[in-house]
Design brief:
The chain is mainly α. It has helices at residues 11-32, 44-49, 52-61, 69-74, 79-90, 96-110, 117-122, 127-142. The protein folds into three domains: 1-65; 66-111; 113-147.
Amino acid sequence: YVGEIPPKRLRGFANSTSSFFWSLGKAVGQISGQRELLGSQSLWPMLMASCGFPALVQLVTLPFFPESPPYLLMHKGDQEGCKRAIRQLWGEGHHQAEIDDIMKEKATMKNTKILSVLELVKEPAFRWQLYMIVILTATVQLCGINAV
């Protein structure tokens, strides 16, 4: 959602900030889990319950956010809903260029073949990218950050 709702010029920034907040959340969790803070046996329930606060905030606020404009236009075909969502997210103004970009993306996706997992593994053009993704994911899992 965060990667789809900003204007095109800010999408890279929005996507990279989500990674930053993931890392920040892990660091805060590790710091607050220290014995000196919330890591003692008596405070352990408070540490576990602290995960519920952001979830509660999200549960309460998400109904007030509009659906993603690309989702409304590309998947639901609702051009008016897309325009309303864009106005709500980005304010009043002329946003026809962004809507045209979404329509171009929809036309491009229509001509793109969706591969199954087995077809993707068998496709030689994607082999090195798959190797890299598997190696990077395995490295992150085996580096010990989850054990810490």
